[in-house]
Amino acid sequence: MRSTVLLLLSLFISILFLAGCSEDSTTAPPLQQFTTSAWVVNSLSSTLSRVDLDSGDVTVNVLSLGTFANDIAVSGTMAYVVNSGDNQIQIVDLTTGQTDGTIEILLGMNPWAIAVDGSQRGYVTNYLTGNVSVLDLVSRQESDTLVVGTSPEGVCIHQDVLYVTDVNLVWPVYGQGYVHAYSLPDLDHVAVIPVATNPQVVLPGPDGMIHVVCTGDFGAVTGQVQLIDPATHSVVDSIALGEYPGSLAFSQGVGFLGYSRLDGTGAILSYDVFARQVLRGADNPIPVNSGVWDVVATPEGRLLACCFGADQVVELETDGTVVATYDVGNGPQAVGVAELPEE
Fold this sequence. Notes:
Helix content is 6%, strand content 55%. By secondary structure, the protein is mostly beta strands. Strands 22, 23, 24, 25 and 26 form a 5-stranded antiparallel sheet that branches. A 4-stranded antiparallel sheet has the order 3-2-1-31, with no helix packed on it.
């Protein structure tokens, strides 16, 4: 009797399960697919090129840029290109590959680098006027300026602080280097931090420190990375790498620095971020086919190196293995990576 009841009960539950399945036969919508692309600023030809990193297809000179275009920041589906010679930021809609507007830099001269805080604000260093332009990305206007020093270059945002480097060049002498810190969003000047010679690049690292690439003076003083503790706004360590690095990217706990010599040759240096030890120094760099003016990491953890003299972008694994080489146009100087929804 007990076995019969259990059999009838299991049949009843099975019928209910099948009925439930038949009543709700809808399927979940497919997940949004994305493509990964690199957007390359060609300074000599004043153009923007696109590399589809999934297929390897290259579209050279997608769009005309302004005079002496030299930096790019990607935020979502938009890119912001620094046209240094025009005192202008060119806004590019990456879904169409077309210019979507411009922001004129009226209170500074020779804009150098840009950092954006989502879609609300942008910050542009002005090399010749010693200030930073604050941009309202919604109204697309220059809304404020920050006095920095003599010759600001690098800029980044970490949590609620804006960091700006001052290379302090009074030609032909590099003076004491500095990093200035400003609180966000109120823009109060909260610290000025002495660093080594010619601090060209500043980025937050995966270790929570602020990494400053001090390029050196292209002579006796060679390059190093100095680490700033954001809690104390002080330098806590230095990593001497040699050569004269001018770009920085992080991947898999390693910092990668591109450099270019005056003769056009160059390579990539690297260091262990957490151990603070050199992995590939001046005596054993990662070789590429010309001087590297910019290096960035892809979402997959690979590296993209702008080889200015070769008119190419080289894609590498972190061990230096070359994955692909892309012919992108005349004088690739900067590159940004975007993940865009497929059409």
